[in-house]
């Protein structure tokens, strides 16, 4: 369908004005351009995480670490990075369960520490619930769970419920190992410190969120340090 007809169909009455504006913006006339649908063939990747997955300090939407990694690996990305959230929300688990995916990655834990929403007693059951909900429809989809990146003072300072980031990493690794022992052969764990560790602290201006260069580094490292190792070695 010609673009002018598309414009008319959605309520643009002044076709001449639309045509002129379209040519001014694109450099081509609407009559020379036809809108259509293209097959969406790349495998789908869903990634879930916090503001570190949202990447607010990235230089552009295409330079977030998930976007960089998806482009390098040839994935169609669905990025579920929620600033201030990622508390293993059941409704997000159900949404992921219902979406098509060839790969699912979950970067969890840092906001649980920051907000104190789950304790050492309740965290593992909540993570099991998240993973098992996703597994209801994604039984054989590769599912990679990543623990928090380096977090400066959070490595040693307990939050109000007694968590430190090292303890969270231990709980996440133990949860993945438990489900692997129960037969989940498509589940893997990666330590976030292997992705961005203490040696990279200069890329964390406030001690937690990477800067634009940090997100570039995360995107560049994702394939080798996280995805390939996670697929090949599973736990630990």
UniProtKB/TrEMBL annotation:
It holds the Pfam family HTH_18. Residues 1-36 form the HTH araC/xylS-type domain. Keywords: DNA-binding, Transcription, Transcription regulation. GO terms for molecular function: DNA-binding transcription factor activity; sequence-specific DNA binding. InterPro entries: Homeodomain-like_sf (IPR009057), HTH_AraC (IPR018060), SGNH_hydro (IPR013830), SGNH_hydro_sf (IPR036514), Tscrpt_reg_AraC-type_HTH (IPR020449). It comes from Paenibacillus donghaensis. This is HTH araC/xylS-type domain-containing protein.
